[in-house]
């Protein structure tokens, strides 16, 4: 059956009329901030204390927008005769958000949990060169990272927490057993009048010498 001429136009006008009769819900941004989902990919925050300059994030980044500079420091030996050790010290950690595609690969491959997603999105600039943010700015965004969601009631305990709890319980049990073991293994005190008791022989010698 051939369509009636003008039916498409009538349907379009009907949708327009229905929309015109509905009340609009406009968020007056920036006076009213939007409610963002908990897993919003706004910007990347850096927890500098966890960074070991392993360079995994920079190598795995498909856009090569992460810039890292570091130097090595020598740590003196902890014990006499020990060996000195060297460690990498972070000098620069910058991300060019003009190139970043927000894929999250750098956050996933970081083995030390130094990178996190922040819902912060208000970092637009008038100059594209100012979209390269250094580690100071990335650290400020770290404090806007939301807390991780709570585990399900039936979920298994994380391996890190379980290992730490077992180590703490083992240490507490060892400390509790130390006083009991020390008292059980110690020899009983000798009586004062025993021959081998300290001071017993010294007390008798003057009396024996006087009787002779």
Can you describe this structure in just a few lines?
With 212 residues, the chain is an alpha+beta fold. It has 6 helices and 5 strands; from the N terminus they run αβαββαββααα.
Keywords:
212 residues; alpha+beta; 6 helices; two-stranded antiparallel ribbon; single chain
Care to describe what's here?
The chain has six helices and five strands, in the order H-E-H-E-E-H-E-E-H-H-H. The N and C termini lie far apart (147 Å). With 212 residues, the protein is α+β, with helices and mostly antiparallel strands. Strands 2-3-5 form a three-stranded antiparallel sheet. The chain has a two-stranded antiparallel sheet with strand order 1-4. The model is unreliable at 197-212 (pLDDT under 50).
Q: What structural class should be given to the helix and strand makeup?
A: alpha+beta
SS strand fraction: 15-25%
Succession of helices and strands: HEHEEHEEHHH
The biggest beta sheet is recorded as: 3 strands, antiparallel
SSE blueprint:
Blueprint: H1 7-21, E1 43-46, H2 56-60, E2 66-75, E3 85-96, H3 105-109, E4 115-118, E5 132-133, H4 135-142, H5 159-185, H6 200-211
Antiparallel strand pairs: 1-4, 2-3, 3-5
């Amino acid at each position: 059956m051939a369509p009636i001429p003008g039916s498409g136009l009538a349907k379009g006008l009907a949708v327009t009329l229905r929309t015109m009769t509905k009340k609009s819900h406009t968020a007056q941004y920036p006076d009213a901030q939007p409610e963002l989902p908990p897993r919003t990919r706004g910007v990347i925050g850096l927890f500098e204390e966890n960074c070991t300059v392993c360079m995994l994030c920079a190598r795995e980044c498909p856009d090569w927008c992460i810039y890292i500079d570091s130097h090595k420091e020598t740590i003196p030996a902890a014990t006499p005769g020990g060996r000195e050790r060297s460690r990498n010290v972070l000098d620069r950690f910058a991300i060019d958000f003009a190139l970043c595609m927000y894929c999250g690969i750098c956050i996933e491959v970081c083995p030390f949990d130094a990178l996190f997603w922040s819902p912060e999105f208000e970092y637009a600039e008038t100059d594209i060169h100012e979209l390269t943010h250094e580690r100071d700015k990335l650290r400020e965004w770290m404090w806007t990272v939301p807390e991780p969601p709570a585990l399900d009631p039936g979920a298994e305990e994380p391996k890190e927490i379980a290992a730490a709890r077992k180590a703490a319980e083992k240490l507490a049990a060892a400390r509790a057993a130390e006083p009991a073991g020390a008292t059980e293994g110690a020899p009983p005190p000798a009586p004062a009048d025993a021959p081998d008791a300290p001071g017993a022989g010294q007390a008798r010698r003057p009396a024996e010498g006087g009787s002779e």
